[in-house]
Specification:
The chain has one domain. The protein is mostly helical and 60 residues long. The termini are far apart. The protein contains 1 helix and no strands.
Amino acid sequence: MKTEELLQRLIQHEKECELRYERIGERLDDQKDHLKSLDAKIWGLAVLIIITPFVDRFLL
């Protein structure tokens, strides 16, 4: 294998890795948004659980 051929293969490999890492970054960003949504839902549920006994006392 000649040096030029090796260099071309290395350049091609770097391009493929760059695309792969871009896709991974995009997927992580999407998951981060999804986790923020889940976090808000969990906090809302926690508030409802904590408030429920107090609401029950005021209604009865």
